[in-house]
């Protein structure tokens, strides 16, 4: 009877913390985009893409976290692999908000650096968990 548990507690904790942090990240980034649109001369055709990236990222975050939790708890590599793929998409959108949005404030740099670090750490745990599930 092989009843060894392969699911990763550090990954589970990190997914949970990332879920909480992302809510904070989304609300603060949204508030900053609104602030920047009021304080700076924000070209109208640049406001929409910045908002679209933020909302697309939020839409990606839900299945990304869900599949991460599900894959980890059920010790299934497929949902965890899909979550990892969605993380790559989230990283690209995060890099956009870090480097290419219309105005980048120091707070944007800080928020995105923390999020990118969390994505990196989480991805490492996902790859490790997938390797454990396959072996």
From TrEMBL:
<keyword id="KW-0812">Transmembrane</keyword>
<dbReference type="InterPro" id="IPR019184">
    <property type="entry name" value="Uncharacterised_TM-17"/>
</dbReference>
<dbReference type="GO" id="GO:0016020">
    <property type="term" value="C:membrane"/>
</dbReference>
<keyword id="KW-1133">Transmembrane helix</keyword>
<dbReference type="GO" id="GO:1905515">
    <property type="term" value="P:non-motile cilium assembly"/>
</dbReference>
<feature type="transmembrane region" description="Helical">
    <location>
        <begin position="47"/>
        <end position="66"/>
    </location>
</feature>
<dbReference type="Pfam" id="PF09799">
    <property type="entry name" value="Transmemb_17"/>
</dbReference>
<feature type="transmembrane region" description="Helical">
    <location>
        <begin position="78"/>
        <end position="99"/>
    </location>
</feature>
<feature type="transmembrane region" description="Helical">
    <location>
        <begin position="111"/>
        <end position="134"/>
    </location>
</feature>
<dbReference type="GO" id="GO:0035869">
    <property type="term" value="C:ciliary transition zone"/>
</dbReference>
<protein>
    <submittedName>
        <fullName>TMM80 protein</fullName>
    </submittedName>
</protein>
<keyword id="KW-0472">Membrane</keyword>
<keyword id="KW-0966">Cell projection</keyword>
<feature type="transmembrane region" description="Helical">
    <location>
        <begin position="13"/>
        <end position="35"/>
    </location>
</feature>
